[in-house]
Design goal:
The structure holds three protein chains of three kinds. Helix content of chain A is about 75%, strand content about 5%. Chain A has 16 helices and three strands. The radius of gyration of chain A is 26 Å and the shape is flat.
């Protein structure tokens, strides 16, 4: 706390002072409250008609939402304890998510299957504002890794409950989903297989390669340079460049096409994602091993450990958090990149994104984008927590 | 001249030749096209498309640099310190958004064409620059910042004369990352009708003409590698000049 | 003159510096000694407002520093720290010229001053002016750091463990440099260290701090002879006391008539050196030489007397 803040604290209660971030959040939220809360369209194609907060909801939930928003404003603006901000933030977000489903049911005329209701700019701004509040509170609380995972699980559980309860079924997003539910899950499986599969293969190949690079200096420079160049090539270009060689393999290597290898589709996507994953894993393995305290290695030598025992018992465990950080980077990156695989027929959530762009159906874009972002976000939270847990007792330079 | 530099010059020469006079290469690309298909992209001038592609990337990266460096400076000053933890988390969360999603979500607000691509590149380009500027400005050697205060520099003088020059290599690394990501994302911009090299690749993909895919991919790939290389070299020179090689490698 | 008047600095709820009052005479070297966490560095950093006191006042030549903008005050006070803190992206010359430039000196005057200071610290300006700090050895970097602190000719020089990172040989040389430069410019020096040996060697006055409190502030001889608290005594080291006392005076200060045989000792040597030489060579008296002439003797008996508190 600054000296000025400490002095002002003596003259009036600490909480009765404006929080700078709170002012920003309140401004964003105010703009959100003023902008259309929901968009109504008579059918999927026509332009949306904005509905303000008061028009989009029956009077009772509208009043409830406004009441809770006002409490949220107050909590954000004042210098209250962090935990109070966290609770208020989550409460407002939960209310917003429940109420938008309610609004969809309210705005859709009885029995009209063509009408579409989607969240408006106001809704998104409100969500953004209070997500800021929650993020800031979570950052300041410096929660232990397990607590962070627990909060993530609670949020997932709440989201599942919301979707399962059917209260969102009138939203355009869910209507897009219900017309293509089987495809959604098939693409989800492809997406997961592409993202996780490529990282798994890259880890199996990359860690030994990293150890080799660590031990043999000339190999290190060469391998890292080549991987650096691969990393630099734009994904769509790399996908494209792999089409020709893989088509050749499929045509000329016996059994290759039977094994599912072809010029377009999942094979080039998998190969490209694998290629992108190698650099962070290999270079983090090298950096991690280089960062092992020389004294520890020296002591291990002094006690008569063989090279293999040192690597397995001392060096790799000490380097592990850094290697895991590399895996975290590529996993988050590949979950995002896998969307582009759809361009070469590789499938994944990107299918919906590109279909949506093609049909100018934003809800379809969201159907592909939201699961991708959620997946990447969850992977980041879990792996960050794992990195922190494995770093205990390992001093980072 | 080292082998690496020779390769760079060679790659650049071939790139320029391909852009200025693509027909020279029709024999090579013809190997990948079916007989009925054109070997060289015929729905636009490759040089124009490339210049347009680079222009979009340049404009977006410039804007990202100005805003990201400015924001990072604000949150590292005393009056912006309250925003520091949040901004770190936001930069972290922002990285989980795939570029395609940012691009697609910019369309409803801006329609099709160059505008959503520019906005997506700008937004996505903010993150690496912001993060690196933050790292650069917060990881300065404490003895140096202490000395800067101790000799009586004002906050502004410390920022301009000491902190920014010392953080420059790290900031540049962020700009380099951002540029490379933008080069790649701009290709996807052609799915929302921006005039970029992606249209060559996508035209190839939709008509099954591998020659198009190959020339589009080669041009973007070589451009990306050359730009990445040039910016890396600039960083190394700067770090050597300031005697902090090894400090900013993270 | 620096008057520190009832100064306190509280971090959270701990008083890092607790009601310290101390007056530092002009043109003297005051060494603040203490273990780490004693508050010595915080106390020093309040003099150039790198730390704002929680309560109390500091006056420099009678003027309360609370009323002077921090950056203006700091330009008037030299500041040298451990690990030198040179700006790595600026040449040696630019580093030294920092404060003159901030003060708006003209180019000619600044350049002359830079060359003068570099020569003073035995760094050939032509050779070193345009080098970058990382091209220098540790000892050279440290000298540039002090040169930078002295560039604008400040009346006061603050030094925070300036020799902490140097090896013993270079450190001894740097200490001699400081003493000769202090004598030449008459700068008031406030130096922080944890090394009592260094404090006794350099200080006109030693201030001993522990847990934020000023335990004792006196001339070295007085501190050695009459430590105010057991902690001060421990810091000096009971078995070291006589030798530390002897190290304070030179042979010239205690000359006796007479010229015994054997290898003479220089008049500028400390009594401690003379004592060591007497023990080592098994003699009871040493002839003393000044400018090549024998001028008297120093005896074991005299030293035994001088090694006790007077």
């Amino acid at each position: 706390m600054s000296l000025a803040a400490a002095q002002s604290a003596t003259s009036r209660p600490t909480w009765l002072a404006l929080d700078k971030l709170g002012v920003l959040i309140a401004l964003i939220a105010l703009a959100g409250a003023a902008l259309p809360f929901a968009l109504f369209r008579a059918n999927r194609i026509v332009l949306g008609e904005p509905r303000s907060l008061l028009d989009a909801l029956p009077s009772f939930p509208a009043a409830l939402l406004i009441g809770i928003l006002l409490v949220g404003f107050a909590v954000a603006l004042l210098r209250l304890p962090i935990i109070a901000k966290l609770v208020a933030g989550f409460a407002v977000l939960a209310t917003l998510f429940v109420v938008i489903g309610w609004s969809a049911g309210y705005l859709t005329p009885e029995g009209d299957t063509f009408a579409r209701v989607s969240p408006g700019a106001g809704f998104w701004l409100l969500v953004f504002a209070f997500a800021l509040l929650v993020t800031d509170a979570l950052t300041r609380l410096r929660l232990a890794p397990l607590a962070r995972i627990a909060i993530l699980l609670a949020v997932i559980a709440a989201a599942t409950l919301l979707l399962w309860s059917g209260s969102w079924n009138d939203l355009s997003l869910l209507k897009e989903y219900s017309t293509r539910a089987p495809a959604f899950w098939a693409e989800a499986r492809t997406h997961l297989a592409l993202a996780f599969g490529s990282v798994a293969i890259a880890a199996v190949v990359g860690m030994p390669l990293g150890i080799l690079c660590y031990k043999v200096r000339p190999v290190r420079a060469a391998v890292l340079n080549v991987l650096n160049i691969v990393q630099t090539i734009p994904s769509i270009a790399l996908f494209g460049l792999l089409i020709a060689p893989l088509a050749w393999v499929a045509a000329n290597v016996p059994g290759a096409s039977a094994a599912g290898i072809s010029g377009i589709g999942a094979a080039p996507a998998m190969v490209a994602l694998f290629a992108y994953s190698l650099l962070p894993i290999v270079s983090n393995t090298v950096v991690g091993l280089l960062g092992v305290p020389p004294a520890a290695v020296d002591a291990a030598k002094g006690m008569g450990m063989t090279g293999r025992q040192r690597m397995v018992g001392i060096e790799l465990p000490l380097a592990f958090p850094v290697i895991l950080t590399g895996i975290r980077i590529v996993l988050v990156q590949n979950i995002g990149l896998a969307t582009i695989a759809a361009l070469i027929g590789g499938g994944g959530f990107g299918v919906f994104v590109f279909q949506g762009i093609g049909q100018t159906a934003m809800d379809l874009v969201l159907l592909g984008a939201i699961p991708t972002v959620a997946l990447a976000f969850a992977a980041a939270v879990v792996l960050d927590a794992l990195v922190e847990m494995t770093s205990r007792g390992v001093r980072r330079p | 001249m080292t082998i690496g530099n020779l390769l760079r010059v060679l790659a650049f020469a071939i790139l320029v030749l391909l852009l200025v006079n693509p027909d020279l290469f029709s024999g090579f690309f013809g190997l990948f096209a079916r007989d009925t298909q054109p070997a060289i992209y015929n729905q636009g001038n490759l040089l124009d498309i490339t210049i347009n592609h680079l222009g979009i990337v340049l404009a977006a990266t410039l804007a990202s640099t100005i805003i990201a460096v400015g924001l990072a400076i604000i949150v590292t000053r005393p009056f912006g310190a309250e925003f520091l933890p949040l901004s770190r988390s936001l930069a972290n969360v922002g990285q989980t958004f795939p570029p395609v999603a940012v691009l697609a979500l910019a369309v409803p607000m801006l329609g099709f064409g160059t505008a959503p691509t520019l906005v997506a590149l700008f937004l996505y380009g903010l993150l690496p620059i912001f993060e690196n500027t933050l790292t650069g400005l917060t990881n300065l050697p404490p003895a140096v910042t202490d000395a800067a205060k101790g000799v009586g520099m004002t906050g502004w003088q410390r920022l301009v004369k000491i902190e920014l020059p010392l953080a420059l290599p790290v900031i540049l690394a962020g700009i380099r990352l951002s540029t490379v990501i933008s080069l790649a994302t701009a290709t996807i911009g052609s799915t929302v009708a921006a005039r970029t090299l992606g249209e060559v690749i996508i035209a190839g993909l939709t008509t099954g003409n591998t020659a198009f895919v190959l020339q589009g991919g080669l041009i973007v790939g070589v451009l990306a590698v050359l730009i990445y290389d040039a910016l890396s070299a600039l960083e190394r020179t700067l770090m050597l000049r300031t005697g902090q090689l090894g400090r900013a490698s993270a | 003159m620096i008057e520190i008047d009832d100064i306190t600095k509280v971090y959270n709820t701990t008083a890092v510096v607790d009601r310290v009052t101390l007056t530092i005479e002009p043109h003297s070297i005051c060494v603040i000694v203490g273990t780490s966490g004693s508050g010595k560095t915080t106390l020093m950093r309040m003099i150039n407002k790198l730390v704002e006191p929680t309560s109390g006042h500091i006056r420099i030549d009678g003027q309360d520093i609370a009323g002077i903008p921090a950056y203006e005050l700091r330009r008037r006070i030299g500041y040298a720290i451990q690990g030198h803190g040179l700006f790595p992206h600026r040449t040696v010359g630019q580093n030294v010229a920092t404060v003159p430039k901030l003060l708006g000196w003209d180019k000619r005057k600044t350049a002359d001053r830079v060359d003068e200071l570099l020569s003073l610290f035995q760094l050939d300006p032509a050779e070193f002016r345009d080098r970058l700090p990382h091209e220098l050895s540790g000892g050279q970097q440290q000298r540039v750091g002090v040169a930078r602190a002295l560039a604008a000719g400040p009346n006061i020089l603050l030094m925070d463990e300036p020799y902490g990172a140097l090896d013993p040989v270079i450190r001894a040389k740097a200490q001699e440099d400081l003493l000769s430069i202090q004598r030449r410019f008459g700068t008031t020096v406030v130096l922080v260290t944890h090394d009592m040996e260094e404090a006794i060697h350099l200080g006109d006055v030693i201030a001993v701090m522990d847990k934020g409190k000023l335990l004792q502030c006196d001339k070295p001889a007085e501190i050695i002879a009459n430590p105010a608290t057991p902690f001060v005594a421990e810091l000096i080291g009971t078995s070291e006391r006589p030798f530390r006392l002897l190290s304070l005076a030179t042979v010239a200060d205690h000359l006796e008539p007479g010229t015994p045989d054997g290898e003479p000792i220089d008049a500028t040597a400390s009594l401690r050196d003379a004592y060591a030489e007497l023990l080592w060579s098994g003699r009871s008296a040493l002839p003393v030489r000044r400018d090549g002439q024998l001028v008297g003797q120093v005896t074991l008996d005299a030293l035994a007397r001088l090694a006790r508190p007077q």
